[in-house]
Amino acid sequence: MPHDTPLIATIVAGLGLAFIFGVIANRLKLPTLVGYLLAGILIGPHTPGFIADQKLGTELAEMGVILLMFGVGLHFSLKDLLSVRAIAVPGAVVQISTATAMGMALAWALGWTMGAGIVFGLALSVASTVVLLRALQERRIIETERGRIAVGWLIVEDIAMILALVLLPALAGILGGENTASAASDPLVQWLGLGIGGVILVTLLKVAGFVVLMLGLGRKVIPWLLHYVAHTGSRELFRLAVLAIALGVAFGAAKLFGVSFALGAFFAGMIMSESELSHRAAEESLPLRDAFSVLFFVSVGMLFNPWTLVTAAWPILAVLFIIIIGKSLAAFLIVIAFRYPKGTALTISASLAQIGEFSFILAELGVGLKLLPQEGRDLILAGAILSIMLNPAVFAAVGWIKRRIDQVPATAAPAAASSDPAADIAPAPPAPPPTDDEEPQSTALTGHTVLVGYGRVGSLVGEGLKAKGIPYLVIEDATRPQARLRQEGVETITGNAVQGDILSSANIAGARRLIVAIPNAFEAGQIVETAKAANPALVIIARAHSDAEVEHLTNLGAGTVIMGEQEIARGIIAEIARAAESNPPPASMADSPVAAAPHGDLPFVPLDEPGTPVAPTTPPREGSPT
Known about the structure:
Elements: H1 6-27, H2 32-42, H3 54-74, H4 78-83, H5 85-109, H6 114-125, H7 129-138, H8 145-171, H9 181-184, H10 187-192, H11 196-231, H12 235-257, H13 261-272, H14 278-303, H15 308-311, H16 313-337, H17 342-351, H18 357-368, H19 374-418, E1 449-452, H20 456-467, E2 472-476, H21 479-487, E3 492-494, H22 500-505, E4 513-516, H23 521-534, E5 539-544, H24 547-556, E6 560-563, H25 564-582, H26 593-596
Parallel strand pairs: 1-2, 1-4, 2-3, 4-5, 5-6
Helix pairs in contact: 1-2, 1-14, 2-14, 3-12, 3-13, 3-14, 5-6, 5-8, 5-16, 6-18, 6-19, 7-8, 8-11, 8-17, 8-18, 11-12, 11-13, 12-13, 16-17, 16-19, 17-19, 18-19, 23-24
């Protein structure tokens, strides 16, 4: 068997070093993506030692973009996309124009041609899909209004860059590069003998044709296919169907319609989201999405030459100014001009303060067409690497600015509430629903129950608390449950309970109990640990899926941890006991353990009282009676 396997070597080296440097970055309180980028630099061609296959790394990164955009589409809907078109379309167009003009000005200062300036400016104007979505997902705001605006803005940028990639070869001769229009133009355009206007028209028609096909035929075929595979009962086939649809639609969109992989995958996910199985599809594709998004950052690091920081320090600083300050300021002013809150404007500005994969594609195309000098490509790569590394710091700065802006009204509200002498004895009305762009308002409840998560489990718990008249509030970061809760008049705090300020807003220090109904044991552990530190007397109830998770949450301070599989087994045993009581077995079976034992003697254990850990069940050994 041959051992010259560049694909395996690239994956192993990329993921292995990304893990090591990701752990180190996390230990140093730095974003893990910084570690991923450093891993890429180490296995790139510009540093000594092992050199990974750069072409394979780029293709693996493209897989990450496809799967990530597919995942975003699963949580998006056509209604969400159309709801932000009024700001996303003009906002993206104006922001691209502004950034391109600034890039052209810098190119002119460096003595480049107008064609080089156009390519350079366009490359600095478009944000990275992976970085933007990763930032929104980490902050749990991708399903909020500002998250939808940012994604809609990204889609418009994507379409604009597709158009630019088609037009640049046709315009190269006019802009001072090599005239390769005949080789690069669409075959249909060549056959019809159309000019530049024809290129634009054909491109727009192909994009429109793809969208119409997906919204027409795709909305019927994709959900039907998912349901058909789900009825086979094979999880393996279902997982394979999800990946085949995501990758197949993305590849077909690129080859048949000239649409980018990312845009094709986004529409595949958006169409699939209309199926009731979309939640399961998202879960099945999540591990691969995470792995390949890591490879994206590694591949970006492989492109970077660290010596550029020394040889072109001032131009790099100018590029960073355009990406982080110029683009962000333009986006901020555009959003404010559309009368959106400052919080929305700040979030979108921070999201767009970086560049990525489309910038690399434009840079390579510009160099190939003799429009952009090699120096321009190096500056774009340096700007991408540094802006990606600095993006978490930009979000932190935006958060600080946002808190400063909201400081006065945030401190005035509690003072006004405390002036009412009846506030301590009268039940407090539900707080007004915070918008996506406000800091979470602190609750006036005390001695209450805090319910984290309002999904399949949390909603049932909430209904039970409501039926018993127990005062409670919900912490939830998904948009749809929030809307339902507010219609029902339930006090809701928008955000991720992992963040300390969210728990503080829920008055966790004055709460009686905390119910963590989310399925993620890692996040649940952080919530339990933070809550227990703020209120040692707090009664904490959590959920788990394994004995290890039970032990993990119990050690962090959860008083009761309920394992779903354990409760299902208890319910099955209880049902068997009820059936045995209502239909007694024949006399010959009277001596059997099940028939002879009354209901109370069966191994059915009622739910433990709060404060008592649930003992993990030990599965029976093979061959032993159940």
